[in-house]
Amino acid sequence: MRAKPGLFALCLVFALAAAVCPLASAQDNAAQPKPAPQESAQPASQPAPADNVKDPAAALLSKLSPDNMRAVAEMLDRDWKDKPEWAEMAVAVLRGDEMRVGSGWWRPSTKRYDWKWLRANFDADADGTVSAEEFVAQCPSDLTAILPKDKLFERLDKDYSSQLAPDDFDWFSRQIIPDPRRMMGDYMFLMLDADGNGRVTPDELQEFFKQSDQGAQGFLTPEDLSQTIARAISSSGGRGGGGPDSADVVRMFFGGELGTFEAGPNVGDLAPDFTLPTHDGSRTFTLSESRGKRPVILIFGSFS
Hints:
The protein is mainly alpha-helical. Helix content is 43%, strand content 3%. Among the domains are: 115-175, Recoverin, domain 1; 186-237, no CATH class. Helix 1 (5-20) crosses helix 4 (66-79).
């Protein structure tokens, strides 16, 4: 039977309290005089009703200082060797790690069709890379319904080396240490895509030019572009009011707002069934009704 995270966290709090706030020794206790009980004509006061606390573990942990939260995380990480996924995330949350790929339960995804699969099926000369010629020759013809074979190769060739290699499929490292070229391209696209629809139109390019050409000269200089980028960064720098503090993150985690404590399906497992309304509320969609009948792509969002 799986231990409940709230109970485990509760035990951690008491363990930390024992470690950082040791009780006085028996000698010290014996040296302190005990006051004599006083009689009172007033009836004993009743204890105040307890607050309606939904998650006592989160409430207790959130009262710890960041240093003591880290102490709990270190004890957990050191002593619990076979931690499940949610416990890895608990360590990251209590330690105050940045929420990013590689932290807690945010790990590289597992894939059915990865570099190992591609190399086994497309690397005809066994040199450890897949050339454009090898890819086109081995690519199933039914994939041309998506894109021509040479265009599919270009999509996979992330570093533009004209060959496919492990780095083209290493999304994990790319997210931890982003490519500066990709970062600049993404940022410029966000600046140009004024309506946020994922497309940059000639009108949006013209509007960007107009805003950047402050002197109405009919052309842009490097200084014009630098000032436009600086204004965009300045105007968006305070968006969102900053991230939640450590106490808020602890409450969110143990309250189930950062994810579920149940492990997700593995590659090849059936996705859990669900029923959700459409965006306009006119009907509902049940996953199992499409199973085996048509391809379904599930895209799950996060929060920011």
